[in-house]
């Protein structure tokens, strides 16, 4: 297992490009935040789909690190996203992940994505990570 | 229908943040390119998953614009990506989209993503776009 | 909206082949049950994948009928299933659906599938139904 | 690798419930057929979604057996289906699978499903199988 502080330190060192902020982690779940600005928007004043996928992927990764410890080479093997509502162009995106299965080689989780403060999710993601074998 | 030049002009005007380059469009398909640099990489020297999703989403969008004309408010409703091989950290990502169904309200397409010059796809995407009703 | 009794009656009349039993419906959710016998099993003493998909599809359909009333021509447009644990060969499969988005033309829901009495889901489904326009 | 005859024999012995007929297998692909009768239909005179999923799952499994030999405990880990056109109620369903990735532990393939004789697919599937470790 890894704590919020360990994960933040690891993310800053190994994923300096990431704009995801770890809000909470533990008990097979995680919450992350992504600020929304010009780079994240698209026509019609909404958050771009790839930004939502980025937040979901990050939430899933953080939940996994929280559960199995710092494993930098865990990789996403599949991800399905359903876009459900138009995100706000002025609110942060919040991603809340719950792990559904923690296997030896595959971990499955789901993520609900929200415009901060809204009760209804803007998108829903199910994703699978593959965990490299330890020697 | 929209030509390569019309789509490029539209993308530059409406999606100035996009790094996707339109390579070809027509006959219910499209090819796009995305340069790979520091911002696109992650630990282990590979291209990040969200960048691959971005390229897939762009390829799908360009193929749709090529088929039905410039419709800025078309939105992705769902997208499934399977990551299959480690992309090269030094080659552009190429996305090749083929539309599978062109309905009045939903368009479905698949995208194969490649590290330029490699014959085997690094990822495969199936996505659906919703087309706004014209009045 | 349709009640449990109305849905059961409709299912028996219009889907006489279905083996799904409606257990509960309402508040944008539904629970269904499917008995498991020889026809539903596969090598290794487990429930076949298509049976799990059948139960998920049925749970989603029942939840939708409960929400919008009897609409026989609603059709599944996409469905993603993740198989997570080996189902029991001797227990009924229970499908619990929660609707995530109820739009005018698309409804999205998720379904967790269980071997009866087990707390951990054997599979997880996200699916989308298209609702025909009423005239 | 396994031949068409070996796979047919295995399917008959281990999956006696299956109605899938192996039409062709080899070169990382497979074609299967499923007869359509009363049991496979639903209101509106079309083939039920779960039947289409069954055919896709079978096509994927046959392609995998053709590639890696008879491995009865290979299991589906995930499957995404997009329904695109209304299948004919009077024609067999044909499933054509192409494997996209053959890894040591995961195999990814796609399947196009057709009403026999129609050029346009009624549904498209991407699925992943997990291959048990050999000792």
From TrEMBL, chains A, B, C, D:
InterPro entries assigned: HotDog_dom_sf, Thioestr_dom
CDD domains on file: PaaI_thioesterase
Record-annotated Thioesterase domain positions: 44-120
TM regions (residue ranges): 59-81
Source domain of life: Bacteria
Gene3D superfamilies in the cross-refs: Hotdog Thioesterase
One annotated GO molecular function: thiolester hydrolase activity
Keyword line: Membrane, Transmembrane, Transmembrane helix
Name by which UniProt lists this protein: Thioesterase
